[in-house]
Amino acid sequence: MSDIGFGVIGLGRMGTLHAQHLGGMITGGRLVAGAVDPRDLEGLRARQDFAYPVVGSVEELLANPEVEAVVIASPTSVHDEHIRLAAAQRMPIFCEKPLADSVARAAAAVQGVEQTGVPFQIGFHRRFDEGYARARDHIQEGQIGEPELFRGITADHIPPFEYLRTSGGLFWDLGVHDFDAARFLMDDDVVAVHAAGAIKVEPRLAEIRDIDYGVTTLRFRKGSLGVVQNSWRAPWGCEIRAEVCGSKGRVVTEQDERVFTRLYTEEGIIGERHQRFLERFREAYRRELQAFVDAVHSGVAPSPGPQDGLKAIQVSEAATVSSRENRWVDIDP
Ligand SMILES: NC(=O)c1ccc[n+]([C@@H]2O[C@H](COP(=O)([O-])OP(=O)(O)OC[C@H]3O[C@@H](n4cnc5c(N)ncnc54)[C@H](O)[C@@H]3O)[C@@H](O)[C@H]2O)c1
Q: From the CB of 33, is ligand 1 less than 6 Å away?
C-alpha cells in the first residue's frame, strides 16, 4: 500500500515535531505540505528552507492533490474549524489535543466527523507512552484489584502569554492530559468534578479568566475518586505522574529523570530531569502518529477517537466552571 500524503496544519512546537516524524520516521505516511497562519508565513520562510510547500491557508493546503490526510496542530481555538474543513474533504484527521476550546464547538466538530465517517484520532500521546500503557495493562490484568483512586500530576513551564490566550485555559491545555489519563487508566468516565484554581505565576492570566494552579477532585461513574494537580510552575523540571490505588495494590508511572544517572556527593544527590515535555514524550508522540497511520491503512477506527476527545474536555469545562463557582459540577452523559 502506498504512503499516505500528510498535510500538517500549524508548524509551531507540535506541528514541527509531527512534520519531523512524517519526514521519515513513520512507516506508511509521509509529509507533503504544511499550512500556517498567513501572518507567520513570511517570517517562517525567511527563517527556514522547507523541502515541501508551505502555504498560508488551510483551504489551499486541502486543495493540494497530494494531501490525503491531515495533522491539525494549529491553536486550540481554530481546531473545530480545521476539523470541519478536512472532514468536508473526507480526509483522515489526526488532531492535537484539546479537541476545541468549548464543549459546544467540539461536539459540533465531532458530529461532522461522525457523519462523514472519516478516521479521526485525538492527540492524547500519554496513552502511547510505555509507562502509562504498562500501568493500564497491570490494572486490566487485575494486578491491583479494583481501582479505587486516581492521582495525576502535571507541572510544566509556563508557555508564552500569547499562546495561553488561545489555549482554552489550564484545565483545557494541561489538565486535559490528566483527565484523559484518568479515563484511560481507570477505564471509567468522570461524572462530576470539584475544582479550585489560583494565580501564582502570571498575574496577566486574570485578564483572560485563566489560572496557573489548579486542583480537581474527580468522581467516576463506578464510584471511585480521583485528584488531579496542574500547574504552570516547574523550576525543578517537568513533573508528570499518574497513580492508581486499588483494593490489592497500586501502580505508579513517572519518569522525571532524563538520564538514569545520579551523582552522590557530600552536597547531596544530583540528577538530570526532563525540562521539556517534547523530550519526555518524544517516542510517545511518534508512536501515536504511527498508530494513526496503521489504523487508516488497515481500515480500523483510530483510538483515542472523537468521543475520547470530547469526554476529556467535558471534564475540563466542568473543572473551569467549578473553580469559578466553587461547587460540584455534574458532567452530562
Ligand atoms: N500533545 C501535547 O503534548 C501538546 C503540547 C503542546 C501543544 N499541544 C497542542 O498543539 C496545538 C498547537 O500548539 P503549539 O504549541 O504547537 O502552538 P504554536 O503557537 O507553537 O504553533 C501554532 C501554529 O499554528 C499556526 N496557525 C495559527 N493559526 C492558524 C490558522 N488559522 N491556520 C493555519 N495555521 C495556523 C501558526 O502559524 C503556528 O505555526 C494546540 O492545540 C496545543 O494545545 C499539544
A: no
86 Cβ inside 6 Å of ligand 1: no
Do 8 and 26 share a structural domain? yes
Q: Find the domain containing 22 and state its range.
A: 4-126+283-304
Q: Verify that 106 and 135 share a domain, yes or no.
A: no
Ligand 1 centroid to 140 CA: how many Å? 34
pLDDT of residue 3: 97
Confidence class for position 332, pLDDT limits 50, 70, 90: confident
Q: 114 and 92, same structural domain?
A: yes
CA atoms of 288 and 225, how far apart (whole Å): 28
- Report the C-alpha gap between 266 and 279 in whole angstroms: 30
Nearest atom in ligand 1 to the alpha carbon of residue 173 is: 43
Distance 224 CA to ligand 1 centre (A): 34
Judged against a pLDDT cut of 80, whether residue 1 lies above it is answered with no
Nearest CA to ligand 1 atom 30: 37
- pLDDT of 333: 75
Percent of the residues in the chain that have a pLDDT greater than 70, as a whole number: 100
CA 215 to centroid of ligand 1, rounded, Å: 25
Q: Which residues of 69-146 form beta strands (DSSP E)? A: 69-72, 93-96, 120-123
Number of domains in the chain: 2
Distances 85 to 18, 29, 77, 90, 91 between C-alpha atoms, Å: 20, 21, 15, 9, 9
Residue 282 Cα to ligand 1 midpoint, Å, equals 17
Residue 125 CA: nearest ligand 1 atom is: 1
C-alpha cell at 102: 468549548
What contacts 155, CB < 8 A, 6 or more positions away?
Answer: 229, 230, 231, 232, 233, 234, 238, 239, 240
| Mean pLDDT, residues 213-218 | 98
